[in-house]
Amino acid sequence: MFRVSGLTRWVTAHGAGHAQWYIERFRRMAAEGVDLEGEARLVDAMLARRSRVLDAGCGPGRVGAQLAARGHVVVGVDADRALIEAAEADHPGPTWLVADLAELDLAVRGEREPFDAAVVAGNVMPFLAPGTEGTVLARIAAHLRDDGLIVVGFGLDRGYPLADFDAQSAAAGLELEHRFATWDLRPWQDDASFAVTVLRLPRPCR
User: Fold this and answer.
1) Which of 18, 36, 49, 124 is the most buried (most CB within 10 A)?
2) Residue 34 Cα distances to 22, 89, 90, angstroms
3) Alpha-carbon distances of 186 from 26, 181, 192, rounded to whole Å
4) Sheet harboring 175-180: ordered strands across?
């Protein structure tokens, strides 16, 4: 099992047992017919068929499963074993792995081919262990092909300043390509409560 770097805010904010509550919440919402596919629709629109997608901080597999259903090859990673076990049970097909995003090295797990895109949904960034956000962005970027995308969404009321995210993204070699206020592409405004950001790893100069 991969070691988790420090205590994430997911653990310190919620404590033991929260993962099961989270799993059951989304199972219940799915059973009730709630639309849970918005993130996957957006990412899918940017990709060719059979793209390789990294679902970073995949939780119980909701987003990655929808991308797989749309014809993509998905590898999902999360540090919480209970969430990965739920993903395996509820969404067979994609590859689900327990892994620490701050130490991400999927080549040693047999995933040596670079990814066309990564999605970081569900407030993953604000829930990381404090001080690891820039490292996580760099480790995700290291798994992308040249010109690959990272699509990141998180609430702006969770203690992780957008200015910090932008600085850490730039330090990881990523370029800000688009920003929206919602996953359904409502225009960005400075007073928005949520940010969806499309980052791109540029092609190297020849």
Assistant:
1) 124
2) 15, 20, 16
3) 24, 5, 10
4) 95-98, 73-78, 52-56, 115-120, 144-155, 194-200, 175-180
For the record, the structure tokens of 45 come out as 């629109």
Torsion 69-110-142-134 (CA) sign? positive
Model-wide pTM > 0.85? yes
pLDDT (tens digit per residue) in 155-199? 999 999 999 999 999 999 999 999 999 999 999 999 999 999 999
User: What distances in angstroms separate CA 29 from CA 18, 32, 35, 38, 41, one per listed residue?
Assistant: 17, 5, 8, 14, 18
- H or E, element range at 97: strand 95-98
The answer to whether 201 and 144 are in contact (CB under 8 A) is: yes
**How do strand 194-200 and strand 144-155 relate by DSSP bridges?**
antiparallel
Contact (Cβ atoms closer than 8 angstroms) between residue 47 and residue 39:
no
What homologous superfamily is domain 9-200 in, according to CATH? Vaccinia Virus protein VP39 (3.40.50.150)
Residue ranges of the alpha helices (H) in the chain?
9-14, 18-31, 38-45, 62-69, 81-90, 124-127, 133-141, 162-171
pLDDT at 24: 82
Q: Which helix (H) or strand (E) holds 79?
A: none
